[in-house]
Design brief:
Oligomer: single chain
Family: Belongs to the peptidase M50B family.
Order of helices and strands: HEEEEHHEEHEHEEHEEHEEHEEEEHHHHH
EC number: 3.4.24.-
GO molecular function: metal ion binding; metalloendopeptidase activity
Membrane topology: Multi-pass membrane protein
Enzyme class: hydrolase
Helix content: 40-55%
Structural class: alpha+beta
Strand order of the largest sheet: 2-3-1-4
Length: about 450
């Protein structure tokens, strides 16, 4: 059922983005009196799942779910309809329009994706506001993996700033470190501020690892699972673990390691228990399962660390939504830049369909759905504006050259450039989805 929910969210989000993008081309084409022959969601070689014709345009749904397209008359595009280009130019064709109109037709999809992102972020700001854990409220510090410890970070460090700039939302610390390729972070360790230098080669290792950093929390029990070691020992909701076999221990990550080292054994746990407003310290024997668990559910993090919330009126949500869009555009542009930096090896993290689909949660959350859809809308806009023949950006590049030189590229040149572009795009798709196969099924 979890995978079905993920797939449904992905299909709904992807379909909305493609339709909005192609509508942008359609809108400007019709605005300037250009004939649109087809408007399709997904690609339809050989046959369509569904189609109908209204006016001059055939609307339909293809069977290959990798995007969509509009076929604009008098234009060399993914349809590679070269026969039409051999006919005399008609006034309702794309090639008959002045360069500035053709430019607007080509950027229409990107514009609509950005507009959609702005509208979604305005809606999110007004409906849910901002909910995040502020860096200043991470009072127990963070837990780091081995890659982070190689850099010099230690469990319990509190990150004060990234390259001298404080990061308000703790969830953005890691991406700021990566995207800005920060040379250092400042941490508070045992009450003292320390500078931790980040070598240039660290970015590749960070991108290739999971759980680089997590918020550190104490081990507070929410509920003991029936029949498990915690329940048999009489552990109760609200109990806080404070010692392991007589040694003081406070944090969940410390207990994970200790339990893992004593699988199948009985150990003594020190417990702090509230009893009528008075905290009692007791020691109880607890059995650890063969999997290294005491089988207890932890108190949610929002009950241990405060969640910062900012609500917006409708008028306030408009500039905030625009600001969020700008922030995400800048963030993704930095990701694209990383892909072309060999030192970072960021190209290894490039993902395909499975990576995109895995971003959605296994439960239905409209807030999460719209956040992801807004970000994907920005991704689609930026990817399409890249100056690669066959993409919108490739057409824009040639149109700008035409405007500057006042010379229009020949149809033969456009055909060859589009073919090369499609080969590059196909190679990119194969590489990205190959990474998915390796990441999900082999690694």
């Amino acid at each position: 059922m979890d995978i079905v929910i993920k797939v449904l969210q992905f299909i709904l989000s992807f379909s909305l983005l493609v339709i909005i993008h192609e509508f942008g081309h359609f809108f400007f084409a019709r605005l300037f009196g250009t004939r649109v022959e087809k408007f399709y969601l997904f690609f339809n070689p050989w046959f369509s799942l569904f189609k109908f014709k209204k006016g001059e345009t055939t609307y339909g749904v293809g069977w290959i779910p990798f995007g969509g397209y509009v076929k604009i008359a008098g234009m060399i595009d993914e349809s590679m309809d070269t026969e039409q280009m051999k006919q005399p130019v008609q006034p309702w064709e794309f090639r008959a329009k002045p360069a500035w109109q053709r430019l607007l037709i080509m950027v229409g999809g990107v514009v609509m994706n950005i507009v959609l992102a702005v509208c979604i972020y305005i809606g999110i700001s007004y409906t849910w506001g901002d909910n995040y854990i502020a860096s200043k409220d991470v009072k127990y510090g963070y837990v780091f993996n081995d890659v982070a410890k190689e850099i010099g970070l230690r469990d319990g460090d509190k990150i004060i700033d990234v390259a001298g700039e404080p990061v308000e939302d703790c969830a953005r610390i890691l991406q700021t470190m990566i995207f800005d390729q920060a040379p250092y972070v400042t941490v508070e360790r045992d009450g003292t501020a320390m500078r931790i230098d980040i070598p240039e080669t660290a970015t590749a290792k960070i991108l290739d690892t999971k759980n680089f950093m997590d918020i550190r929390v104490p081990f507070v029990i929410a509920q003991a699972a029936k029949g498990g070691g915690a329940a048999k020992a009489g552990l109760q909701p609200g109990d806080t673990l404070i010692a392991f076999n007589g040694v003081g221990m406070r944090y969940f990550d410390e207990y994970q390691q200790a339990f893992s080292a004593h699988k199948g054994e009985q150990v003594n746990l020190g417990i702090a228990r509230d009893s009528g407003g008075v905290t009692k310290i007791i020691t109880v024997p607890v059995e650890i399962s063969n999997e290294g668990l005491i089988e207890a559910k932890l108190v949610p993090i929002n009950e241990l660390i405060p969640i910062s919330t900012h609500r917006y009126s409708f008028l306030e949500s408009i500039p905030h939504g625009i600001k969020l869009t700008g922030t995400e555009i800048s963030s993704y542009a930095k990701q694209i830049k990383l892909l072309f930096s060999p030192k970072t090896e960021a190209y290894k993290s490039l993902g395909g369909i499975m990576t995109l689909g895995s971003v959605f949660p296994t439960y239905w959350s409209w807030e999460a759905f719209w956040h992801i859809t807004a970000f994907f809308s920005i991704v689609l806009a930026i990817m399409n504006i890249l100056p690669i023949p066959g993409l919108d950006g490739g057409h824009v590049l040639f149109l700008l050259v035409e405007v500057i030189t006042r010379r229009k590229p020949s149809d033969k040149f456009m055909e060859r450039a589009t073919t090369v572009g499609f080969i590059l795009i196909l190679a990119l798709l194969i590489f990205a989805n190959g990474n998915d196969i390796y990441r999900f099924f082999i690694k």
